Amino acid sequence: MTVRRTSMHGEWSSRMAFILAATGSAVGLGNIWRFPYITGENGGGAFVLVYLLCIALIGVPIMMAEVLLGRRGRQSPINTMRTLATEEGHSPLWQLLGWAGVISGFLILSFYSVIAGQALAYIVRAAGGLFTGITVADSKQIYAALESDPERLLAWHTLFMAMTMVVVARGVKSGLEQAVRFLMPGLLIMMLVLLGYAMSTGAFAQAMRFLFRPDFTALTWNAVLTAMGQAFFTLSLGMGAIMVYGSYLPKRTSIAQTSITIAVADTMVALLAGMVIFPIVFINGLEPTAGPSLVFKTLPIAFGQMWGGPFFGALFFLLLSFAAWTSAISLIEPAVAWMVENHGMSRAKAAVWAGAITWVLGLGTVLSFNLWSEVTLFGKTFFGVLDYLTFNVMLPLGGLFIAVFAAWLMSRRSTVDELAIGDGLGYETWRFLVRFISPAAVIIVFLYVLGLLPLISKVFEAIFT
Ligand code: TRP
Q: Which domain holds residue 349?
């Protein structure tokens, strides 16, 4: 069945505009800050392989599902889910999926903004020549000084939130398009410059072995869950960000092609980040398991040694902040679109509300790095709890329900119509992946992590023997 709805928020000017905005959303701190440090924490190669499999088998099909739902519903994820569920003869309670996404968005942005604030702070530190000739100890010291100062962190977090809210208030389509078009390639070139440096360090081969030679003995189920959560996070899936961007997508564009393009671009940036950071880690005897501070401790050493370091360093952290900014916008867009639709608010007012909520939540992360670093729940700080809850629980669950809805509850005719890849092999592959593979993968990994799978197999054994 063909439905004709238009979005009250307008449309992207072209297919390219959507690809740029969605890539802007996907490429961010997840690729450059998080991917290297969780790879380091989880032992390298085998983890990277699982991550790549998750991108291809779970990420891309679910991204297609999200874009498809968004474009068909043409509203904020909450209203899209309600409209589509009703239209396909299911409970309007499916809108809860949209609500869960809005909550995930607030939670993720609250700490995302604090980390992005650190990237902003590093622009100033790099430009001022602070990194020139520094040792490993100096680099750690520079980071510690920032991390232990709640007022500084708060100031940068506030600045980043303000920047994000300005764009969101003006509407994501004006401005964002042009900016991504030039700055994304800029970031890529910067990564290649850094790759040149990394190759000259003498530890490049060791880093490549670490990243690409899988050692499965190092792999735990928790690591598999982390890899899966990262696949959702890095592609901006599981909370409606891509759904809301899909709702601005003009009718006849290929969802399959665009999704693959976005996933490839995103994966390239993440792998490049790993290839840049690990040589620096190994040659300087740094710990691969340093955690969230890894990128901030390694790259300054590189900028401190290379020709034109202050310039390249400042430029790099500027581009990283920019990449974080285009991602942050998409984390808050589902909430803002809903406030505009249901409460008739202006975008500006909605943006201020959403920003205020996120800003307050962010205080928890700011403090968890210093004054509250000893305050823990299940052995995790405030930031640690948010990180685990959003990446390892909320995004995979969101993705699971999106897959189930798109593949099991939407009629075949609706999805064929929306995907417009014909009824052939491509469509069948997609449907098979979202029907069976993606949901099963999420469920199995959850069961293992919760320790329930051994229990279930015992029950089966008991029944059948
Ligand atoms: N993908 C972004 C990154 O890698 C973060 C992001 C933006 C995101 N929007 C999202 C993550 C929606 C999950 C859901 O930095």
A: 15-464
Query: Domain of 359: which CATH number?
Result: 1.10.4160
- Rounded to 5°, angle at Cα 77 from 346 and 174: 45
Q: Which two tokens stand for residue 369?
A: 């790095």
- Domain-embedded: residue 150: yes
**134-174 pLDDT, tens digit each:** 999 999 999 999 999 999 999 999 999 999 999 888 876 66
- The tens digit of pLDDT for each residue in 368-416 reads 999 999 998 888 999 999 999 999 899 999 999 999 999 999 999 899 8
Does 3 map to a domain?
A: no
CA 453 from chain centre, in angstroms, equals: 28
Report the C-alpha gap between 103 and 106 in whole angstroms. Answer: 5
Domain contains 193: yes
CA 170 to ligand 1 center in whole angstroms: 20
CB 25 near ligand 1, within 6 Å: yes
The answer to whether position 5 is within a domain reads no
Alpha carbon separation from 364 to 141, 179, 325, 369, 393 (Å, rounded):
23, 31, 20, 9, 20
The response to whether residue 31 sits with its C-beta less than 6 Å from ligand 1 reads yes
Question: What total of structural domains would you count in the chain?
Answer: 1
